[in-house]
Amino acid sequence: MQLLPLSAKITWIALFLNHQVAAKRITKTDGLIIEDVIDVECTRPTRFGDNILVHYRGSLLDGMVFDESYSRNTPFAFELGKKQVIAGWDEGLMDFCIGTKRRLTIPWQLAYGERGYGSIPPKAVLVFDTELLDIEGVEQHPLVPGTNHTAGSPDKPKEVTNGECHLLGPFALLVQSVLGLLAVLSLVFKRWRESPRRPVKVFAFDAAKQIVGTALLHVTNLAMSMLSADIDTARHAMKIAAQVIANGQGRMPNPCSYYLLNLAIDVSRM
Q: 97 CB contacts (<8 Å, ≥6 apart)?
Protein backbone atom coordinates (compact mmCIF):
# COMPACT_ATOMS: atom_id res chain seq x y z
CA MET A 1 0.00 0.00 0.00
CA GLN A 2 1.48 3.34 -1.08
CA LEU A 3 1.37 6.05 1.59
CA LEU A 4 0.46 9.59 0.67
CA PRO A 5 3.23 12.19 1.06
CA LEU A 6 2.99 14.59 4.00
CA SER A 7 2.06 17.56 1.78
CA ALA A 8 -0.86 15.67 0.27
CA LYS A 9 -2.07 14.65 3.75
CA ILE A 10 -1.96 18.26 4.94
CA THR A 11 -3.87 19.39 1.84
CA TRP A 12 -6.58 16.79 2.37
CA ILE A 13 -6.89 17.67 6.07
CA ALA A 14 -7.30 21.37 5.13
CA LEU A 15 -9.90 20.51 2.53
CA PHE A 16 -11.78 18.35 5.04
CA LEU A 17 -11.80 21.03 7.75
CA ASN A 18 -12.82 23.70 5.27
CA HIS A 19 -15.61 21.44 4.08
CA GLN A 20 -16.98 21.07 7.60
CA VAL A 21 -17.53 24.84 7.99
CA ALA A 22 -18.71 25.62 4.46
CA ALA A 23 -22.49 25.41 4.34
CA LYS A 24 -22.70 25.06 0.57
CA ARG A 25 -20.21 22.18 0.34
CA ILE A 26 -21.33 18.59 0.37
CA THR A 27 -19.30 15.42 0.18
CA LYS A 28 -20.41 12.61 -2.06
CA THR A 29 -19.05 9.16 -2.71
CA ASP A 30 -15.32 8.46 -2.79
CA GLY A 31 -14.37 11.87 -1.40
CA LEU A 32 -15.84 14.11 -4.13
CA ILE A 33 -16.24 17.66 -2.73
CA ILE A 34 -18.73 20.06 -4.33
CA GLU A 35 -18.82 23.79 -3.60
CA ASP A 36 -21.23 26.23 -5.21
CA VAL A 37 -19.08 29.37 -5.26
CA ILE A 38 -21.87 31.43 -6.85
CA ASP A 39 -25.21 29.79 -6.13
CA VAL A 40 -28.18 30.46 -8.43
CA GLU A 41 -31.49 28.83 -7.56
CA CYS A 42 -33.69 27.69 -10.43
CA THR A 43 -36.74 25.59 -11.19
CA ARG A 44 -34.94 23.22 -13.55
CA PRO A 45 -31.39 22.11 -12.67
CA THR A 46 -29.40 19.58 -14.66
CA ARG A 47 -30.56 15.96 -14.82
CA PHE A 48 -29.24 12.67 -16.10
CA GLY A 49 -29.05 12.71 -19.91
CA ASP A 50 -29.07 16.51 -20.32
CA ASN A 51 -26.87 18.02 -23.01
CA ILE A 52 -25.12 20.85 -21.18
CA LEU A 53 -22.64 23.60 -22.02
CA VAL A 54 -19.94 24.29 -19.44
CA HIS A 55 -16.99 26.64 -19.00
CA TYR A 56 -14.24 25.18 -16.86
CA ARG A 57 -10.73 25.58 -15.48
CA GLY A 58 -8.89 22.47 -14.32
CA SER A 59 -5.92 22.57 -11.95
CA LEU A 60 -3.91 20.37 -9.61
CA LEU A 61 -3.87 20.80 -5.85
CA ASP A 62 -0.75 22.96 -6.14
CA GLY A 63 -2.65 25.41 -8.36
CA MET A 64 -1.08 24.45 -11.68
CA VAL A 65 -3.69 24.83 -14.45
CA PHE A 66 -3.56 21.97 -16.92
CA ASP A 67 -6.60 22.85 -19.06
CA GLU A 68 -9.33 25.49 -19.35
CA SER A 69 -12.03 26.57 -21.76
CA TYR A 70 -11.97 30.23 -20.69
CA SER A 71 -8.66 30.96 -22.45
CA ARG A 72 -10.01 29.37 -25.65
CA ASN A 73 -13.38 31.08 -25.22
CA THR A 74 -14.91 27.75 -26.24
CA PRO A 75 -17.30 26.15 -23.71
CA PHE A 76 -17.38 22.37 -23.50
CA ALA A 77 -20.56 20.50 -24.47
CA PHE A 78 -21.39 16.96 -23.43
CA GLU A 79 -24.23 14.66 -22.34
CA LEU A 80 -24.42 14.41 -18.58
CA GLY A 81 -24.27 10.98 -16.98
CA LYS A 82 -23.32 9.09 -20.14
CA LYS A 83 -19.61 8.60 -19.32
CA GLN A 84 -18.45 11.09 -21.92
CA VAL A 85 -16.37 12.80 -19.21
CA ILE A 86 -14.66 11.71 -16.02
CA ALA A 87 -16.90 10.27 -13.30
CA GLY A 88 -16.31 13.28 -11.04
CA TRP A 89 -17.96 15.52 -13.62
CA ASP A 90 -20.89 13.20 -14.26
CA GLU A 91 -21.64 13.13 -10.55
CA GLY A 92 -20.57 16.63 -9.55
CA LEU A 93 -22.51 18.51 -12.23
CA MET A 94 -25.91 17.04 -11.38
CA ASP A 95 -28.53 19.44 -9.92
CA PHE A 96 -26.63 22.34 -11.48
CA CYS A 97 -28.46 25.61 -12.29
CA ILE A 98 -27.59 27.87 -15.21
CA GLY A 99 -25.40 30.69 -13.94
CA THR A 100 -24.06 28.74 -10.98
CA LYS A 101 -20.29 28.57 -10.55
CA ARG A 102 -19.28 25.28 -8.95
CA ARG A 103 -15.92 24.03 -7.73
CA LEU A 104 -15.31 20.29 -7.85
CA THR A 105 -12.46 18.68 -5.89
CA ILE A 106 -12.22 15.26 -7.50
CA PRO A 107 -10.20 12.35 -6.06
CA TRP A 108 -8.09 10.38 -8.49
CA GLN A 109 -10.52 7.42 -8.38
CA LEU A 110 -13.15 9.65 -10.08
CA ALA A 111 -10.64 11.40 -12.35
CA TYR A 112 -7.81 9.86 -14.41
CA GLY A 113 -6.93 7.05 -12.04
CA GLU A 114 -3.56 5.48 -11.44
CA ARG A 115 -2.12 6.29 -14.86
CA GLY A 116 -2.95 9.98 -15.19
CA TYR A 117 -3.47 11.70 -18.51
CA GLY A 118 -1.14 14.00 -20.46
CA SER A 119 0.28 16.57 -18.04
CA ILE A 120 -1.88 15.15 -15.24
CA PRO A 121 0.25 12.85 -13.04
CA PRO A 122 -0.93 9.46 -11.75
CA LYS A 123 -3.35 9.47 -8.81
CA ALA A 124 -3.77 13.24 -9.07
CA VAL A 125 -6.52 15.04 -7.18
CA LEU A 126 -8.10 17.56 -9.56
CA VAL A 127 -9.83 20.87 -8.87
CA PHE A 128 -12.30 22.10 -11.50
CA ASP A 129 -13.90 25.53 -11.43
CA THR A 130 -16.99 25.16 -13.59
CA GLU A 131 -19.81 27.41 -14.78
CA LEU A 132 -23.03 26.13 -16.34
CA LEU A 133 -23.98 28.16 -19.41
CA ASP A 134 -26.87 26.23 -20.93
CA ILE A 135 -29.05 23.13 -20.77
CA GLU A 136 -30.13 22.16 -24.26
CA GLY A 137 -33.89 22.38 -24.78
CA VAL A 138 -34.59 23.87 -21.35
CA GLU A 139 -35.89 27.41 -20.93
CA GLN A 140 -34.30 28.46 -17.69
CA HIS A 141 -36.04 30.64 -15.09
CA PRO A 142 -33.83 31.64 -12.17
CA LEU A 143 -35.78 32.17 -8.96
CA VAL A 144 -36.15 35.74 -7.74
CA PRO A 145 -34.86 36.09 -4.16
CA GLY A 146 -37.66 36.30 -1.61
CA THR A 147 -40.26 34.67 -3.88
CA ASN A 148 -41.48 31.13 -4.44
CA HIS A 149 -41.90 29.93 -8.02
CA THR A 150 -41.94 26.20 -7.35
CA ALA A 151 -45.73 26.01 -7.68
CA GLY A 152 -47.21 25.21 -11.08
CA SER A 153 -45.09 24.11 -14.01
CA PRO A 154 -41.62 22.89 -12.97
CA ASP A 155 -40.05 24.55 -16.02
CA LYS A 156 -42.02 27.77 -16.08
CA PRO A 157 -42.53 29.74 -12.86
CA LYS A 158 -45.38 32.12 -12.29
CA GLU A 159 -44.92 35.57 -13.73
CA VAL A 160 -43.43 38.10 -11.33
CA THR A 161 -44.93 41.56 -11.58
CA ASN A 162 -43.71 44.79 -10.06
CA GLY A 163 -47.12 46.21 -9.11
CA GLU A 164 -47.59 48.23 -12.31
CA CYS A 165 -51.20 49.14 -13.00
CA HIS A 166 -52.72 49.03 -16.48
CA LEU A 167 -54.94 51.90 -17.56
CA LEU A 168 -56.78 49.68 -20.05
CA GLY A 169 -57.01 46.61 -17.82
CA PRO A 170 -60.42 45.20 -16.75
CA PHE A 171 -60.31 46.71 -13.26
CA ALA A 172 -59.05 50.06 -14.54
CA LEU A 173 -61.86 50.26 -17.11
CA LEU A 174 -64.39 49.41 -14.41
CA VAL A 175 -63.07 52.20 -12.19
CA GLN A 176 -63.13 54.67 -15.09
CA SER A 177 -66.72 53.69 -15.93
CA VAL A 178 -67.80 54.22 -12.31
CA LEU A 179 -66.11 57.62 -12.23
CA GLY A 180 -67.83 58.58 -15.50
CA LEU A 181 -71.19 57.52 -14.10
CA LEU A 182 -70.60 59.56 -10.95
CA ALA A 183 -69.71 62.59 -13.09
CA VAL A 184 -73.01 62.31 -15.03
CA LEU A 185 -74.98 61.81 -11.79
CA SER A 186 -73.37 64.95 -10.38
CA LEU A 187 -74.77 66.93 -13.32
CA VAL A 188 -78.21 65.43 -12.72
CA PHE A 189 -77.98 66.25 -9.01
CA LYS A 190 -76.91 69.82 -9.85
CA ARG A 191 -80.02 70.32 -12.05
CA TRP A 192 -82.23 68.82 -9.33
CA ARG A 193 -80.85 71.33 -6.80
CA GLU A 194 -80.93 74.41 -9.05
CA SER A 195 -83.74 76.93 -8.94
CA PRO A 196 -85.22 77.77 -11.34
CA ARG A 197 -84.50 74.57 -13.22
CA ARG A 198 -83.32 74.68 -16.78
CA PRO A 199 -85.55 73.08 -19.41
CA VAL A 200 -84.66 69.47 -20.18
CA LYS A 201 -83.49 70.35 -23.68
CA VAL A 202 -81.20 73.12 -22.43
CA PHE A 203 -79.87 70.85 -19.67
CA ALA A 204 -79.22 68.06 -22.21
CA PHE A 205 -77.16 70.36 -24.46
CA ASP A 206 -75.20 71.76 -21.50
CA ALA A 207 -74.54 68.29 -20.09
CA ALA A 208 -73.58 66.89 -23.50
CA LYS A 209 -71.05 69.68 -23.97
CA GLN A 210 -69.44 68.92 -20.62
CA ILE A 211 -69.56 65.14 -21.08
CA VAL A 212 -68.00 65.26 -24.57
CA GLY A 213 -65.30 67.71 -23.48
CA THR A 214 -64.45 65.65 -20.38
CA ALA A 215 -64.40 62.41 -22.41
CA LEU A 216 -61.98 63.90 -24.96
CA LEU A 217 -59.78 65.18 -22.15
CA HIS A 218 -59.87 61.74 -20.49
CA VAL A 219 -58.90 59.91 -23.69
CA THR A 220 -56.08 62.39 -24.34
CA ASN A 221 -54.88 61.94 -20.78
CA LEU A 222 -54.86 58.15 -21.19
CA ALA A 223 -52.89 58.34 -24.43
CA MET A 224 -50.33 60.79 -23.02
CA SER A 225 -49.87 58.73 -19.83
CA MET A 226 -49.33 55.44 -21.67
CA LEU A 227 -46.99 57.04 -24.22
CA SER A 228 -44.95 58.72 -21.48
CA ALA A 229 -44.62 55.44 -19.58
CA ASP A 230 -43.53 53.59 -22.74
CA ILE A 231 -40.87 56.19 -23.53
CA ASP A 232 -39.56 56.14 -19.97
CA THR A 233 -39.56 52.34 -19.94
CA ALA A 234 -37.54 52.13 -23.14
CA ARG A 235 -35.06 54.69 -21.82
CA HIS A 236 -34.40 52.91 -18.55
CA ALA A 237 -35.15 49.29 -19.40
CA MET A 238 -31.62 47.94 -19.05
CA LYS A 239 -30.93 49.80 -15.82
CA ILE A 240 -34.19 48.71 -14.20
CA ALA A 241 -33.79 45.10 -15.31
CA ALA A 242 -30.35 45.01 -13.71
CA GLN A 243 -31.80 46.33 -10.44
CA VAL A 244 -34.59 43.74 -10.46
CA ILE A 245 -32.15 40.88 -11.03
CA ALA A 246 -29.68 42.18 -8.45
CA ASN A 247 -31.96 42.93 -5.54
CA GLY A 248 -35.59 42.87 -6.63
CA GLN A 249 -35.96 46.59 -5.94
CA GLY A 250 -36.22 47.98 -9.44
CA ARG A 251 -39.50 49.61 -10.45
CA MET A 252 -40.87 50.07 -13.92
CA PRO A 253 -42.51 53.40 -14.90
CA ASN A 254 -46.20 53.37 -13.98
CA PRO A 255 -48.72 54.90 -16.43
CA CYS A 256 -51.19 55.46 -13.59
CA SER A 257 -48.74 57.87 -11.98
CA TYR A 258 -48.59 59.88 -15.21
CA TYR A 259 -52.38 59.81 -15.44
CA LEU A 260 -52.86 61.14 -11.91
CA LEU A 261 -50.24 63.83 -12.53
CA ASN A 262 -51.95 64.98 -15.75
CA LEU A 263 -55.31 64.92 -13.99
CA ALA A 264 -53.99 67.05 -11.15
CA ILE A 265 -52.60 69.58 -13.64
CA ASP A 266 -55.93 69.72 -15.51
CA VAL A 267 -57.96 70.19 -12.31
CA SER A 268 -55.62 72.85 -10.92
CA ARG A 269 -56.01 74.93 -14.08
CA MET A 270 -59.79 75.02 -13.86
A: 39, 40, 41, 42, 45, 46, 132, 140, 142
Instruction: Find the mean pLDDT for residues 106-124.
Output: 93
Active site residue 189: no
Report pLDDT digits (tens) over 12-62.
555 544 544 444 556 666 789 999 998 888 889 999 999 999 999 999 999
Task: Write out pLDDT tens, residues 159-204.
Answer: 434 445 666 777 777 877 888 888 888 888 887 888 888 888 888 8
| 135 annotated active-site | no
Strands (E), the chain: 25-27, 33-38, 51-60, 65-68, 76-79, 101-106, 126-135
Confirm whether 66 is a catalytic residue: yes
Chain centroid to CA 247: how far? 10
Annotation says 205 is catalytic: no
CA geometry: angle at 198 spanning 193 and 199, to 5°? 130
CATH topology of domain 6-135: Chitinase A; domain 3 (3.10.50)
Catalytic residue check, 258 = no
Pairwise CA distance, residues 113 & 117, whole Å = 9
- Residue of 67, 134, 206, 266 marked catalytic: 67
Residue in 56, 96, 258, 259 annotated catalytic: 56
Point out the catalytic residue in the list 66, 76, 78, 117. Answer: 66
Residue 52, strand partner residues: 78, 135
**Rounded CA separation 159/171 (Å):** 19
Cα–Cα distance, 116 to 121 (Å, whole number)? 5
For residue 26, indicate whether it is catalytic.
no
Question: Which residue is catalytic, options 34, 86, 98, 106?
Answer: 86
Prediction pTM value: 0.47
Domains in the chain: boundaries = 6-135, 170-269
